[in-house]
Amino acid sequence: MATPLRRVREQAQKPRARTRFQPESDTQATVTFKKSPNSPLDSYSALVVNESYTGCCLMILRPRQIEVGDFCRVKLGQLSEMPAQVVWIANLDADVVKIGILFKA
């Protein structure tokens, strides 16, 4: 069975549907999750791994249980906060995950 890091490396070698852009050094994002209408907001800081016109990849300390399909709001660097959705999750170790974010209009 492939390790999470190996799966991430293999995935990174596949052709991309959209061009990825490297962020400026140490660009941070704020991700705010809301599991349900009555649940409290959970905000986390994340490092931006890459960006595209339709989404981004973030590296984040493992937040509460997040799942593919969760909706969130993302603020990348100096950009305005925007609605988004988690489309993939890769566990890097016990404390860190990479998440794929799709921006929603």
Structural commentary:
The protein is mainly beta. It has a single domain (4-11, 27-103), classed as predicted glycosyltransferase like domains (Thrombin, subunit H), CATH 2.40.10.220. It has one helix at 4-12; strands spanning 28-33, 42-51, 55-61, 71-76, 82-91, 96-103. A six-stranded antiparallel barrel has the order 1-2-3-6-5-4. The longest helix has 9 residues, at 4-12. The model has no long low-confidence stretch (mean pLDDT 79).
Quick rundown:
This protein has 105 residues and is mainly beta. It has one helix at 4-12, and strands spanning 28-33, 42-51, 55-61, 71-76, 82-91, 96-103. Strand 4 (71-76) and strand 5 form a beta hairpin.
Provide the fold topology.
Elements lengths: L3 H9 L15 E6 L8 E10 L3 E7 L9 E6 L5 E10 L4 E8 L2
Antiparallel strand pairs: 1-2, 1-4, 2-3, 3-6, 4-5, 5-6
Beta content:
35-45%
What is the general shape?
Answer: globular
Name of the CATH homologous superfamily: predicted glycosyltransferase like domains
Q: What is the domain tally?
A: 1
Strand order of the largest sheet: 1-2-3-6-5-4
**How many whole angstroms does the radius of gyration measure?**
13 Å
The low-pLDDT segments are none
Distance between the termini: 37 Å
Mean pLDDT over all positions: 79
User: Number of DSSP strands?
Assistant: 6
What is the helix content? under 10%
Count of separate DSSP helical elements: 1
From N to C, what is the helix and strand string? HEEEEEE
The CATH topology is given as Thrombin, subunit H
